[in-house]
């Protein structure tokens, strides 16, 4: 076999390998695209169907949140259901509020950060979402709606969750 013949065979073999590789990568790309769009579609259906828990207007049996809550402190709890994550906080001036801690953007956990802003912030670390602790309104980032409010009552034996409001709904 001459050097030229071997070179031609090598080139042909190389072309076959490249063709096989590009077929494989095209197939892999298509598989990935189908998997991703399927996942997005399933996520959209789950959100539309209310699979992810959201607080809504309504009443539920009162639930003890904490016996006390000093200024600047927060407490995490679940209300009205076990999956309905919420946070109660007492601001430095004594104002007591509570909200769903499920971010209205993509449902990450919202945290009370007393060290941020002038009066503290409700902060979502996923995409830098920020909510006003006095109202639950969005003050920065991508969340599309305010945090739904959890209604509290301060009684002799502690702080109780007594109801919930829809996102943006005013307290009656
Ligand atoms: S999930 Fe909270 S800002 Fe995106």
Architecture overview:
This protein has one helix at residues 3-48, and strands at residues 63-66, 74-78, 85-90, 96-100, 111-113, 121-124, 129-131, 138-140, 150-155, 158-164. It has 172 residues and is an alpha+beta fold. The protein folds into two domains: 3-48, no CATH class; 63-164, Rieske [2Fe-2S] iron-sulphur domain (Rieske Iron-sulfur Protein), CATH 2.102.10.10. Strands 5-6-7-8 form a four-stranded antiparallel beta sheet, with no helix packed on it. A three-stranded antiparallel beta sheet has the order 1-10-9, with no helix packed on it. A hairpin with a 6-residue loop joins strand 2 and strand 3. The protein is elongated and about 95 Å long. Residues 43-52 have low confidence and may be disordered. FE2/S2 (inorganic) cluster binds next to loops.
Summed up:
This protein is of the alpha+beta class and 172 residues long. It has one helix at 3-48, and strands at 63-66, 74-78, 85-90, 96-100, 111-113, 121-124, 129-131, 138-140, 150-155, 158-164.
Attribute tags:
three-stranded antiparallel sheet, 172 residues, Rieske Iron-sulfur Protein, 2 domains, binds FE2/S2 (inorganic) cluster, alpha+beta, elongated, 1 helix, 27% helix, four-stranded antiparallel sheet
């Amino acid at each position: 076999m001459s050097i030229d013949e071997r070179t031609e065979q090598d080139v042909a073999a190389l072309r076959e390998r490249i063709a096989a590789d590009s077929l494989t990568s095209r197939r892999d790309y298509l598989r990935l695209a189908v998997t991703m769009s399927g996942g997005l579609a399933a996520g959209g259906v789950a959100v539309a169907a209310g699979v992810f828990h959201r607080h809504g207007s309504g009443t539920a049996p009162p639930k003890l949140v904490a016996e006390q809550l000093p200024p600047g402190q927060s407490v995490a709890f679940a209300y009205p259901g076990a999956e309905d994550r919420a946070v109660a906080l007492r601001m430095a001036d004594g104002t007591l509020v509570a909200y769903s801690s499920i971010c209205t953007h993509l449902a990450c956990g919202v945290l009370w950060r007393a060290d941020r802003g002038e009066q503290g912030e409700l902060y979502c670390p996923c995409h830098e979402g920020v909510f006003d602790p006095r109202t639950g309104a969005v003050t920065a980032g991508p969340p599309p709606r305010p945090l739904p409010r959890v209604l509290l009552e301060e009684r002799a034996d502690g702080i109780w969750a007594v109801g919930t409001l829809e996102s943006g709904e005013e307290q009656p």
